[in-house]
């Protein structure tokens, strides 16, 4: 099979790397405005099984031409291209998976369902870590307990060696993280979708050493369309981001002081967007090229009948190849989904979210083969 990856950034590169390790993949093409920016771990493959293509994703004709001859496209471009890429994939008659990032766009992608079915194409948004991996786990938990009372999802990308004051380092996009800190989160309360304030309802979750106790608070987007999919079926559902203790206590005042606002303010006669100034100021301090990250995940599902199931993941960066834990859990998830679309393990056609289409057993087993081990917790265990 031949696979097309859109985006030569962190997640696209990790996705391409994983695809190149699969013997059934004949060729991978990475398309980007600057495809030469690929990381060093991909360079040995260029000109062999890896092709680089300069492409402007906004050029619809060029995008469709790039898709020709490929079995599927894994879209790791910015989220605002997801709808256009999905439409192009349906037109081209190839499967498509992306990393999500915007719930409203996912609902728009759902409108392509009938056409995708007619073209015998599978389109799956939200195929990263959160949304993505957590949606597959949550859906499996709901199936297992039967009549689900609550679904709680906790995820965080963290530095292995935190440094004050934020105990945080940039693991994907600081702009994206700040969106989550300022956008209300959709949850299920009494079986109905509701919005809660980001950074609110702080609680603590304990992981095995050396991670230990983390704090958790609401952020938006992590479970995407799940609150609507399970409206009236699950009483409580929520997603919270994990950080080291004290993080939210700093970020809330920063937000409340207006430093994350998008409305320009006058500074010595010039318009300045506070959030842009904040990002420009703190990014150099939070960017740690030699910093090693980890991903912590917990999904807990409880039924009205007393049944409960939970999964946990602690994944660490691959230092030998220079692949972060966030790249492993997100980029590999995208690659696995694309492979399943092509080889038939995902049989559904049309537009389906991961909780609707991705087979739990095959997905978890595929991650385990890559060293990303999701462990089912014994009932009552927090470790």
Give a concise summary.
With 383 residues, this protein is α/β, with parallel strands linked by helices. It is 33% helix and 26% strand.
Layout: helices, strands, pairs:
Layout: E1 2-6, H1 10-20, E2 27-32, E3 50-54, H2 60-67, E4 72-75, H3 82-92, E5 95-98, H4 103-110, H5 113-118, E6 122-124, H6 133-145, E7 148-159, H7 174-182, E8 185-189, E9 192-196, E10 203-207, E11 212-218, H8 226-229, E12 236-243, H9 247-256, E13 265-267, E14 270-272, H10 274-286, E15 293-303, E16 308-316, H11 325-343, E17 350-351, H12 354-357, H13 360-369, E18 375-377
Parallel strand pairs: 1-2, 1-4, 2-3, 4-5, 5-6, 6-17, 7-12
Antiparallel strand pairs: 7-15, 8-9, 10-11, 11-12, 13-14, 15-16, 16-18
Helix pairs in contact: 1-11, 2-3, 3-4
Question: How would you sum up this structure, described in words?
Answer:
This protein has 383 residues and is α/β, with parallel strands linked by helices. It folds into two domains: 2-128 and 328-366, NAD(P)-binding Rossmann-like Domain (Rossmann fold, 3-Layer(aba) Sandwich); 133-321 and 373-377, 2-Layer Sandwich (Dihydrodipicolinate Reductase, domain 2). It is built from 13 helices and 18 strands. It has helices at 10-20, 60-67, 82-92, 103-110, 113-118, 133-145, 174-182, 226-229, 247-256, 274-286, 325-343, 354-357, 360-369, and strands spanning 2-6, 27-32, 50-54, 72-75, 95-98, 122-124, 148-159, 185-189, 192-196, 203-207, 212-218, 236-243, 265-267, 270-272, 293-303, 308-316, 350-351, 375-377. A seven-stranded parallel sheet has the order 3-2-1-4-5-6-17, with helices on both faces. A hairpin with a 4-residue loop joins strand 10 (203-207) and strand 11. Helix 1 packs across helix 11 (325-343), helix 2 (60-67) packs across helix 3 (82-92) and helix 3 runs parallel beside helix 4. The radius of gyration is 20 Å and the shape is globular. The mean pLDDT is 95.
